[in-house]
Amino acid sequence: MMNDRSTDAPIRVLIAKPGLDGHDRGAKVLARGLRDEGFEVIYTGLRQTPEMIADAAEQEDVDVVGLSILSGAHMALLPRTVELLRQRGMDDVLVAAGGIIPDADVTKLKAAGVAEIFGPGTSIGQIARYFRENARRS
Amino acid sequence: MLGELRTGERRPLARLLTRVEGGDPSVRALLPDLFAAGHGGHLVGITGPPGSGKSTLVSALIGEWRKRGRRVGVLAVDPSSPYTRGAILGDRIRMMEHAADRDVFMRSMASRGELGGLAATTWIAAAALDAAGFDPILIETVGAGQSEVEIARLAETTVVVEVPEMGDEVQAIKAGLLEVADIIAVNKGDRPGADRAARQLRAMLSTAGGRIERKPPPVLVTTATTAEGVPALVDAIEAHRSTARSPMRARERAASQVRRALADLAARHAEADPGWEASVQAVADRELDPFTAAERLLDAGRLE
Ligand SMILES: Nc1nc2c(ncn2[C@@H]2O[C@H](COP(=O)(O)OP(=O)(O)OP(=O)(O)O)[C@@H](O)[C@H]2O)c(=O)[nH]1
Ligand SMILES: [Mg+2]
What we know:
The structure holds 2 protein chains of 2 kinds. Chain A is an alpha/beta fold. Chain A has helices spanning 25-36, 50-60, 74-87, 103-111, 124-134, and strands spanning 12-16, 40-43, 64-68, 94-98, 116-118.
């Protein structure tokens, strides 16, 4: 019943798209790409509130939360999501974001607990490598 | 550990499920208490072909059971890629409206490439949800492969979700359906032909041979997107609960569970045996038949 697989279990990543803008092509491409890189990707779809994302991440016990954001509401949504995750006891979950975010905001977001921000043109291979190197594994 | 499960806190349950999924050896010691802590939650399998609306239906079922004051647990199992071991677990998209509801716990699980092991993992995960007081516990699996049939056997009540377009395939799916279905939902009832498909199915099932000790499974039409027919489906699932707990069915299910546990234990011991590699090679070289190899490995285990 119990093989010792725990150490090499795939990394679990939740991909969510907070905010109101209506297309998720990028998030879907990322989800598929990460699957092909050997990740277990929980895809939650469009228009998620930070509460929904944190609640889903908690139940799924993911190692990484990846937030895809285009709407410009990143300063409202990303720190709030980090805060809610921490409130739920997910202190070591890696939070990363992808999207077009001005440099000044990047500094603030990192201070708020977003570990990394991937700009347009980042390859899936780069993202996968970053997740492998930085995800908590427990 | 188990005490924490009962508080309704999500995090300890989520962490335990990670250990179960990962095959963490420390879980073995918890199993007696975990199963003993069960509250008798109704284990309901939801299966059917890809895209037939299982997840949407699960979401509608959650909504109906919540109205009836129940706490609902969900496990949604999707296949892992055998090449990369990665998976996209997309069932949650359809259930996000319940994400914040503290009385709903939903977990996506990847098959991680194991056929029999998946059934055992799912069953232990369901036991954890039961210990945490969820009732019913819904298990979504796709398709009708061997592992899905096994998971269905571990469930007390299995709902097979079909779509109206199955029409001509009715004959082909009949055997598989009869094997696992306690209830059939013809979903996407808003599409043309749903009632006709349901009638065809009922006619087919009423003349079916085979397990004559059982009544043919009820066939219901549902529209998961509007929840039409969903209260009736919940009623049918509830009605089946007592059937599933008849002494005969309970015994059949227990036998499946013990067989499952036995196969897993035996395989685990045999794989840890020093003679495993040589035995497998001997079978590959056709020097030994698999049954004799298995028997010798079992005997070797017994001598320990
Ligand atoms: N018209 C109609 N569409 C439905 C109904 N139920 C589900 N759908 C749609 O069918 C598609 C698939 O629904 P899912 O709930 O994801 O189906 P599933 O069986 O869980 O899919 P897999 O898990 O991928 O096998 C979605 O676009 C749903 O909106 C229904 O009752 N009527
Ligand atoms: Mg689904």
